[in-house]
Specification:
Order of helices and strands: HEEEEHEHHEHEHHHEEHHHHHHHEHEH
Strand order of the largest sheet: 1-2-3-5-4-6-7-10-11
Distance between the termini: 38 Å
Number of strands: 11
Structural class: alpha/beta
CATH architecture of one domain: 3-Layer(aba) Sandwich
CATH topology of one domain: Rossmann fold
Helix content: 25-40%
Oligomer: single chain
Radius of gyration: 23 Å
Number of helices: 17
Length: 485
């Protein structure tokens, strides 16, 4: 995978080369950016942060973390005339990536300069691929393994992922060192290497889980944080997720039932889909195309569709197809179930999520609700993988709520099967100077789909002491617009 990134920063180069680094010190080196990235949009600097894989170990090998810094086009100054610190951006997953997509972001900003109010205008934005994935090294991808937020679709995928992780361990990768707590120290080292006394934090989905670790383990470097569709440390990854998916489905179908036209097209849809879900739980279903699909395929469909702003609008029509034997909506989701760096994903879950949960609690929570029970088989396999690999003991602090006075803006979607608004409200209660936005009809990844939320995030970063404007949000009773296409 492409590892080297960009460069237009003699200052950074000078900083990195100013003095010989001691063994174990973080080292930042500027690299060339990909030649096909636009150069007429922002000043962009690419680099690699090199750190110890295992901090404190005398014989630790060194690993590389891919970084891109996009310079602000019009740096904003606060009331004291001070420039704002850079924003460090955290990708979701775990097992996502950011660096490879910066070129596309630059192209988008060039073609639509006013479409993104947070497009590195006020502050520098620093993108990085968290250790273990993306263009960082090692990058623990597991080709051939299918994995989604609904879990592992088959026993073969569980076996393949287990074997993949064991191969990385045999190659010398310390699986215990790829998790939120260690990444928090990477962020602190990045700030140190770049000479940044303070940074702001911004992330979505699992990104806020890493932000929470930075706030816990390196609070001295954080000025403010923005968390979009946040996953807090105290959340249960598998346990209660089936119920959250079922809740999201019922919210959407309830919005359909509340509209006469949608209700007439899809009468009594919730009850009919519950009956259909029971049929899926009894065994594979064969579609009109003659191909069999499993309950795990349906689980992935429900999770991914209720995450997606277009998917929620199509859900009643898609469920009608599924109930009628046309399984094409399920098949479409099944075509793309390899969007994570699977090894990185599981290293996080096995260290800091699943040790605090159990397969028995997963099953018990979903029992009696056929829509929830659909997600149990694929999520159960996550526990099987973790039982077969060694990532070290879990620290209870990584499952505890964060208590802090660092100003934080929480933005959550009304419809979110993975990071529901109730979880956001509970987490925010422990952030003394927090603000919370819950956006009606929005789905996962709010600032990318709601201009009001994006402006609020920018305003908060400018001045976290002011209440963000929520008057531009849709009212709680705003109908959801459905699509039959």
């Amino acid at each position: 995978m492409l590892k080297t990134l960009l460069a237009a920063g003699l200052a950074l180069l000078g900083l990195a080369a100013a003095a010989p680094a001691a063994a174990g010190d973080p080292v930042y080196v500027v690299k060339d950016c990909p030649a096909d990235w636009p150069t007429d949009v922002r000043t962009v600097e690419c680099g690699t942060l090199t750190v110890d894989e295992t901090r404190g170990a005398a014989d630790s090998r060194r690993i590389d973390i891919a970084v891109v810094r996009v310079r602000a086009s019009r740096p904003f100054q606060d009331a004291n005339g001070q420039a704002l610190p850079p924003v460090v951006v955290f990708h979701g997953g775990p097992g996502g990536a950011l660096v490879g997509g910066v070129g596309r972001r630059l192209g988008f900003w060039r073609d639509r300069p006013d479409a993104d109010p947070m497009a590195a205008i006020d502050q520098d934005w620093i993108y990085f691929d968290q250790r273990g994935g993306g263009q960082s090294t090692p990058s623990m991808d597991c080709p051939g393994v299918e994995l989604t937020d609904a879990g592992l679709p088959s026993a073969q995928d569980a076996e393949g992922l287990t074997d993949c992780l064991k191969r990385y361990a045999d190659q010398g990768v310390q699986l215990s060192q790829y998790n939120a707590a260690v990444i928090a120290q990477d962020v602190a080292d990045l700030a140190r290497a770049l000479g940044l006394p303070k940074v702001d934090l911004y992330g979505g989905s699992y990104g806020p889980r890493i932000q929470a670790a930075v706030i816990t383990h390196a609070p001295q470097i954080v000025r403010v944080a923005v968390m979009d569709s946040p996953w807090p440390p105290e959340g249960n990854w598998a346990v209660h997720t089936p119920e959250q998916v079922a809740t999201a489905v019922r919210i959407i179908l309830g919005k359909c039932a509340a509209q006469s036209e949608c209700d007439a097209r899809h009468p009594n849809l919730t009850a009919r889909f519950e009956a259909n879900a029971r049929e899926w739980l009894a065994g594979p279903r064969t579609g009109a195309d003659g191909k069999a699909r499993t309950v795990e395929d349906l689980a992935a469909f429900l999770m991914d569709t209720t995450y997606d702003r277009q998917g929620v609008r199509r859900l009643p029509a898609d469920l009608e197809k599924i109930i009628g034997g046309d399984l094409s909506p399920v098949a479409a989701i099944a075509e793309d179930r390899t969007y994570y760096f699977e090894g990185q994903h599981m290293a996080h879950l096995c260290k800091e999520e699943l040790p605090f949960e159990s397969k028995a609690a997963l099953v018990a929570g979903a029992a009696g609700d056929p829509i929830a029970e659909v997600s149990v088989p694929s999520l159960s396999r996550l526990f099987d993988v973790c039982a077969a690999i060694d990532v070290g003991a879990a620290d209870p602090v990584e499952n505890a709520p964060v208590h802090t006075a660092i100003p934080t803006l929480f933005i959550a979607a009304e419809i979110d099967p993975g990071c529901p608004p109730a979880l956001t409200r509970a987490a925010a209660a422990n952030y003394r100077d927090s603000q919370v936005m819950i956006v009606t009809n929005a789905t996962h990844g709010v600032t990318g789909q709601n201009a009001c939320a994006a402006r609020a995030a920018r305003d908060f970063l400018r001045d976290p002491t002011k209440a963000v404007d929520q008057t531009c949000l849709p009212a709680a009773d705003t109908p959801l617009v459905f699509s039959e296409d």
